[in-house]
Amino acid sequence: GAGVSQSPSNKVTEKGKDVELRCDPISGHTALYWYRQRLGQGLEFLIYFQGNSAPDKSGLPSDRFSAERTGESVSTLTIQRTQQEDSAVYLCASSLVGGGMSSGNTIYFGEGSWLTVV
Amino acid sequence: GQNIDQPTEMTATEGAIVQINCTYQTSGFNGLFWYQQHAGEAPTFLSYNVLDGLEEKGRFSSFLSRSKGYSYLLLKELQMKDSASYLCGTGANNLFFGTGTRLTVIP
Q1: How do beta strands A5-7 and A19-24 pair?
Q2: Quick one: pLDDT at residue A6?
Q3: Is B51 on the interface with A (CB under 8 A)?
Q4: Who's near A49: CB < 8 A, 6+ residues apart?
Q5: What mean pLDDT comes out for the span B75-85?
Q6: DSSP letter at B40?
Q7: How do residues B19-72 score in pLDDT, each as one tens digit?
Q8: Three-state DSSP class for B82?
Q9: Angle at A94 between CA A8 and CA A33, to 5 degrees
Q10: Residue A86, helix vs strand vs coil
Q11: Residue in B closest to A104 by C-alpha
């Protein structure tokens, strides 16, 4: 597609429920990234995919968080047994290739999925 | 590990010049990015530096000193629409960001 697409744009869930957040990267982009941004704060790196594999998942905050990517395209971030502290916007981004930032390998962000855990 | 520092908030006057500083210590480096993020919106790409020196792009310029682990974003002729958060990011295979600097432009 023309840009990074994320769904749902807004999600309100009850504490303890599982949620799935979806990301469609820019067509042809092989690298995909997930970030979390709490209200008024900076971007917290969660995980990075090159193709369908995740060379760096160091940012996942707990084993309740997992992500997968299939077909070198769509990615799903799953949060199990949600807690109120999980409330944040989850931003997905993609770049043409992985393995190195460069001027030709800019990261482009989606609009984010706003998650509220009540 | 990654350590990227920026001031949390800055205020500047419309028409003025403002410099937003960023210092970094990262385990890998493939350039430094600046992004702009308006409240409630996605970050958008502003600039990229991989070599030392100043890169100018219209009203915005970005500077890098790799030996000092230091960059700044310079905004000239400030406009009200420049009120936003400015994110400094760097890394090797992926981007890590600082907490962002929230800039408020006042009349």
Answers
A1: antiparallel
A2: 96
A3: no
A4: A31, A32, A33, A67, A69, A75, A98
A5: 97
A6: T
A7: 999 999 987 777 899 999 998 888 999 999 989 999 998 999 999 999 999 999
A8: helix
A9: 75
A10: helix
A11: B48
Tokens of B50: 């991989």
Does position A96 have pLDDT exceeding 90, yes or no? no
- A61's tokens: 């905050």
Q: How confident is the model at residue A99 (pLDDT cuts 50, 70, 90)?
A: low
Closest in A91, A98, A101 to B42, CB measured = A91
Cα separations (Å) of A85 from A80, B40, B95?
Answer: 13, 19, 24
pLDDT digits (tens, 9 = 90+) for A41-59: 889 999 989 889 988 788 9
pLDDT confidence of residue B29:
79
Residue B37: CB partners within 8 Å, gap ≥ 6? Answer: B43, B44, B84, B85, B86, B87, B100
Handedness of CA B93, B86, A93, A62 (dihedral sign): positive
CA distance A38 to A85: 9
**How many Å apart are CA B77 and CA A49, to the nearest integer?**
39
Reduced to 3 states (helix: H, G, I; strand: E, B; else coil), residue B80 is: helix
CA distance B67 to chain A (A): 19
- At A37, is the pLDDT very low, low, confident or very high (cuts 50, 70, 90)? very high
Q: What is the CA angle A56-B72-A26, rounded to 5?
A: 40
Kindly identify which residue of chain A lies nearest to residue B4, measuring between CA atoms. A42
Tokens of A72: 């070198």
B42 and chain A in contact, CB less than 8 A: yes
pLDDT number for residue A76: 97
Instruction: Give the burial string for A25-55 (b: 16+ CB within 10 Å, else e).
Output: bbeebbbbbbbbbeeeebbbbbbbbbeeebe
